[in-house]
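Dear support,

I submitted the protein below through the web form. The confirmation email said the job was done, but the results page showed an empty box. After a refresh the structure appeared. I'm attaching both so you can tell me whether what I see now is the final result or a partial one.
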Amino acid sequence: MKLNLTDQIALITGAAGQLGRVMVRTLAECGADVVIHYRGSLAKAEELQREVESMGRRAFTVQADVTDQASVNAMRDAVLEHFGMLPHIIVANAVESYQWTSVLEQAPEDYESQFQSCVMQSVYLAKAFAPAMIERKSGRFIGINTECSIQNFPSQSAYVAGKRGMDGVYRVLAKEIGEHGITVNQVAPGWTISDRDRENGTEHSASYEASVPLKRRGTDQEIANAVAFLASDLSSYITGAYIPVCGGNVMVGI
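What the results page shows now:
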């Protein structure tokens, strides 16, 4: 038994970012052809494209603003023109960055940015790509959420608001399109070790790790592994799930 994504096309938004690039490599290693979405990191996106092509997989780099419906639709059209079909797998990974602070100090536009990049990205991607999946009678939507959605710690409010809104969209979407053989799930990373940490020597945090049952931070590869599982046929009867990948730091209640 193995994760086999041969003959599948996967689109990862924010693919040039710290987590996105590992998702790209992992899905390609599982056999998928990859659409590498970026907003401003063209050089990194093109480097990823070369990596994927060196594996013998097809790759296509495309720029889009995922908070703008016309831009998402233009990305859809570009992918269709390039591959002759639309993706089987959508991974909504992109999110706007901002400076975290208290509710009383957080700028209103930060809440807007999180709503647009979490909630509306999910809506625009569904509108653009779900119809082809419905026609095909199969597909995978995978949203990247966060453990913060359960933590609700001070200074997290804008991020939590956006990701909790995203959670609502994904749960409803799972019920609306499940009858067509399409699964809709979320991966919720904890505070994850990425290339930036490895380069800066910041892989460890004693205070954070003390609260995690597994007593360590997770890695970008472990997040990508969960995404690959949900993208594969091994997860064919899982939908509507919010899956923390955080060493048990948060646990979903029943």
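Response: this is the final, complete result; the empty box was a page-load delay. The chain has a mean pLDDT of 97.
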